[in-house]
Amino acid sequence: MHELPQNLVNGLLLGATYGLIAVGYTIVYGIVQLINFAHGEIFMTGAFGALSVYLGLGSGTSMWIAIPLMLLGAIVTSTVIAVLTERLAYRPLRNAPRLAPLITAIGVSITLQQLVWGFYPSAKSPRVFPSLPGGPFHIGGVLIQSADIFVVVAAVLSTLFLAYFVRATRTGRAMQATAQDPDTAKLMGINTDRVIVIAFALGAGFAGIAGVAWGLRYGEIKFDMGFLTGLYAFTAAVLGGIGNIYGAMLGGLVLGLVQNLTAIYIADIPGMSQFSSQSWSSVWAFVILILVLMVRPQGLLGERVADRA
Amino acid sequence: MTALLEVQDLRVAYGKIEAVKGISFSIEEGQVVTLIGTNGAGKTTTLRTISGLHQPTSGSILFKGERIDGKPAHEIVRMGLAHSPEGRRIFARMTIEENLLLGAFLRRDTPGIQADVERAYELFPILGERRKQAAGTLSGGEQQMLAMGRALMSQPKLLMLDEPSMGLSPIMMQKIMSTIAELREQGMTILLVEQNAQAALSLADQGHVMEVGRISLSGTGADLLHDESVRKAYLGED
User: Fold this and answer.
1) Residues of A whose CB is below 8 A from B154
2) Cis amide bond preceding A136, omega within 30
3) How many domains is chain A built from?
4) Model pTM score
5) Taking the CA of residue A226 as centre, how many other CA atoms within 13 Å lie in the half-sphere pointing to its CB?
6) Which of B85, B94, B105 sits opposite A189 (nearest CB)?
7) Which of B51, B91, B140 is closest, CB to CB, to A181?
8) pLDDT one-digit tens code per residue, A43-53
9) For residue A11, which of A109, A142, A260, A301 is within the disulfide window of CB 3.0 to 4.6 Å?
10) CB A180 to CB B92 under 8 A?
11) B100 lies within 8 A of chain A by CB
């Protein structure tokens, strides 16, 4: 007997984490048309940044104080690394053929993984991440951990903040203009180089928050945790419509649900039980991606490319 | 008297292809100067280089007596140079009002910006009627009005218009040209790039004919209008 509500909740929680990471892929792609394959590693370094802060605090610190500081540590670490990679790796290739920055991004991804593996203390095996006190709670037959509440609050607040930022601030309008037409944005007096840095920083900040959420939920972090998760988040961004921030969140939620539900319910279909294991869940995630893209190549919330005539 | 804009021996290349091959001209304050010529003559490249979207290979550009070649585009805008680009390039997914406000991106005087938005609506009433509409839904002529209104929002000292009449119906074209005339009456300095030589030369104090990257002929608007070679080449007369 499966518990549908529990699986829905688990799927949405996983999806919200994907969504937080996917936002970074989508913002950067929307502005520089670069798929930043190192973004998964930005998420990973955020988690390690938070762990460093926690280890520096001493054992007596209350989690109520530790969590905000860990979040800050994660956001700062992710943002600094993302801004540095933009400056050192991507900006010199701004006018190069698109394949060059794409391959560079893969290189940055491997470099960051190996740097953490090689230089972060005891990072060659998983490192234990602190957990939140309290819980678990039973709400209507659904088991909810404290970390789950953290994920929901983080995802909702982050999405609201981003929506406000893009719509209502001067920098947000500059980002929209740059995404639509960079040359004309320059003619409006917008410093597009600065907008690109802000896009990387903003995406990195969300990835850092996701890193903390991930650590709290799973209890451990690892140097290569960003690889597959980053790939799923990228899938979520494409699924939702790359370039669209709400699409990234929606794509994340859909993907999280698909992975959770297929892992369990595929077994109920006669003759399909061998396809229900955890390792098949990525297959189903990508099957859904392919199906959606066959019907809607621009993704769920994607827009057709605007005419510039 | 020093010129507001002075272009000296400007050369611009795309890779190995030189699009602008050493041109010089200047614009005095309050003048309307036009560059005319066929497609591929280098007019658009010249404007894009002045506004900082391209870097010249050699030569210099002085605006208000200061070198601006090599400066990033957003700093050139700040100095008071507005450029309404070829093909209008409005932000299609934003509203008309948002487009106008982006034109005032570098200004911080909210009341002044609001007043200028209203002035743009007076200049082009159709924009005011549709202010909350996505700019991509406007007709070509209306988009051109928006592009001009947006360029004016930065309160420029020099307004550069690239092919404002391109692809417009005769009535729309007349409306755009009369607006340019109106701006001239108000004392606006304008650099106008046009393929419609007749309309451009009738408005211009000075005109320059560009041919494959060079200025082949210069004179007052009236002189060029009556020049036989110009009439043959650009005004469709035998």
Assistant:
1) 188-189
2) yes
3) 1
4) 0.91
5) 34
6) B105
7) B91
8) 999 999 999 99
9) A260
10) yes
11) no
Joined tokens for residue A88:
């050192």
Q: Do A188 and B103 touch (CB under 8 A)?
A: yes
A280 burial class (0-12, 13-18, 19+ CB within 10 angstroms)? middle
Assigned domain for A144 exists: yes
Q: Which class is B29-41+72-207+216-234 in CATH? A: alpha beta
CA distance B2 to chain A (A): 25
Closest CA to B193 of B59, B32, B28: B32
Give the tens place of pLDDT for each residue, A225-235.
Answer: 999 999 999 99
Task: Enter the tokens of residue A179.
Answer: 């995404």
Q: What is the CA radius of gyration of chain A?
A: 20
In angstroms, the CA B233 to CA B8 distance is 26
Residues 157-216 of A with CB under 8 A from B: 170, 173-174, 176-177, 180-181, 183-193
Q: Is residue A149 part of a domain?
A: yes
Helix extents (H) in chain A? 4-32, 39-57, 63-85, 99-119, 146-168, 170-180, 182-187, 192-218, 225-240, 245-265, 281-295
**Considering the domain boundaries, does residue A202 fall inside one?**
yes
A109 within some domain: yes
Residues A197, A82, A247, A4: what is their CA dihedral angle, to the nearest 10 degrees? -160
Tens-digit pLDDT profile for residues A101-117: 999 999 999 999 999 99
Identify the band that residue B237 occupies on the pLDDT scale cut at 50, 70 and 90: low
